[in-house]
Amino acid sequence: MAAAARPGPEELALLEQLLGLPKGNKYGVQGERKIPVLQTNNGPGLTGLMTIAAHLVKQAKKDQLLGNTAEEKAVVQQWLEYRVTRVDGGSSKEDTRIILKDLNVHLEDKVYLAGNIFTLADVLMYYGLHHIMADLTVQEKEKYLNVSRWFNHIQHYPGVRQHLSKVIFMKNRLYTNAH
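Structure (tokenized):
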């Protein structure tokens, strides 16, 4: 099984590192669904993957990862919600098929989830899909070509993959010279 970022603390630690933030935040989880929690020094803790991730982005002064225009910000928010409600909430083969189909259609004419800019949505969707993409066969990856193209692009984006296993997308074909 490929190394995967567990939703929550480990994933937030990867994001923290990607953003160039110093380590030291204390993460935990709460409840049956293991909702991530960030313990803060001043005030109540922050709860939820999207809330904590947005906080880290602002702390790192990399607000462009949340989108530049009102429309980009809305699209980033939409995909972050999709990640938390559909990707993290999905568990069956059918859920996975629907998620990959949705993303494949959306990415048909886009480089990134929010269009032409790399955002927090790309990072968290990559972390959320890593274990799924790692387990797909070559044929399944070819079926979701746009998702595969996007995923491969994101895994090569500087600082994103870190210790996660590299997902392979090309199959080596053997050709013979028999004429």
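Helices lie at 9-18, 49-59, 70-87, 93-106, 120-135, 138-143, 145-155. DSSP finds seven helices and three strands in the chain.
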